[in-house]
Amino acid sequence: MSEDDKATAVMWPPLPASEGPAIGDACARASWFAGHLFERILVPVAGDPGEVRVPEHTSLAALADLGRVRVCGVPEATQAASSGRCMVLVQRADVSDAAPLKAAKFAGSLEVRGLAPSGPDGARYYFVGSPAHDLQDAYHWVCLSYWMHADRQEADVLAPSRRALAALKAEARRHARVAIFGTGPSLAEALDRDHSGAFNMICNSIVKNRPFCERLRPRVIVAADAHFHFSYHHYSAALLHDLAHQLRTSDAVFFTFDKFAAFLRRRMPSIADKVFGIPAGRKEYGYDFDRDFRVHAGDSVLNMFLLPLASYLGEEIVLNGFTGRAKTDTYFWSHSELNQYGDRMADVRSAHGAFFANRDYGAYSDTVDQEISLRVERARGEGKRVASATRSFYTALAAQDA
Predict the structure, then answer these.
(1) Given this model, what pLDDT does residue 5 score?
(2) May I ask the CATH class of domain 152-398?
(3) pTM for the whole thing?
C-alpha cells in the first residue's frame, strides 16, 4: 500500500451497542496500536452506544491519537470500506454472521472467513483479533506497523540492527565476561555486587530500578512480549516510560523482535535511533548472528534473546536473577517486586484476557527449563563458560551456582 492508501481504517465486524466496554476497549486499542498509521479509524456500532468510555486499564499515553478514532454507524463504516483505499482491521477470525464486506488479505494477516474477496483496488483486511478470544491479539496489533511498511524494514530496522550488534560484539571482547540480569527474586543477591568488569545486559522491567541501572550501566536492554511490553495498558506505559529514560540518559541500546522494533521506532520516535530488532525464523537454535541474523523460537526472553546474544558476544556468561519457578509458585514464576511493576499486573490481565485463560503455568515453566538446558549445553559444548551467580531452580543452572 502507498502512503495515500493509509488514510482510513475500519474496525470489523460491527459491535453491538450493548457491548459498551468492548466498544471503549476497541477505541483504546485502535488509538495506541494504529493511531500513528491512519488519519482516521472508524469503529462501527450497531445501535446507539450512548457514552463510550475506555477501560480503566488504558494508559494515558495510549490515548494520544484517540482523536483519530471515531465510533460510527454500520452504513458509514461499510461505505468507507467499500470505497477502497482502506484497511479493514478484523476482530474475529470468522465474520460470516456480519454484514457482507469485500476485502482482500493484506500481507502478514491471518486468514479470515466470511469476507468476500475484493478487486485489486479494493479494501485490504488485517486480522488484529479480540483480547477476549485470541491468545495473540497484542502480537497481531504490534506487527501491523511492520507490515504497513514492510518494503522499508531492511533500511529502517534490519541494516541498523546488524551494524549495532556487530559493534557490540567488538565492544564486549574488551570485558571479562557477559553478565545478564533477570527479574526473579534472586536478583536481590546481585544488586549490591560490583559488575563493573562485565558487559551487562538486562531484561524488561529492570529499567524500573533506576538506581541499580545507574550503577550497572547496562549496554543492552531486551524485552520481547507484546502483551506486557508494547500494549495500551498501564504496565506497558510504565515500562516504556522507564525504558525511554534509560535510553536517553545512558549509552544503552534496546533489542527486541524486528516487528516490535518497527512499531516502537514509529510509536516513540524520540528513542528510535537506539531501538533495534532481530527477526524470528531461525530453524534450529544457534547464536552465530553474523551468518544468520535471526533468533530461534523460545518461550522466554532468556531463551529467545539473552542467552543467544550473550553466547554471541562473549566466552564467559554469568546469569543473575533467573530464579525460575519454585514449587510454591502459582503464576509463571515469582518476580523481584523492586524490579517489576507488580501493581500493574492486573491491568495486563484485564487488557488481554485470552492470553492468560486456561494457562498451565507448570507445563510452561517445564518447557522454559528444557529450552534453557538446550542453550546452556550448546554453549558449554562449544567452550563457553556459563553459570548462575544467584540462586536458580533451572536444571542447567542450579548445579552450577557460582
Answers:
(1) 46
(2) alpha beta
(3) 0.93
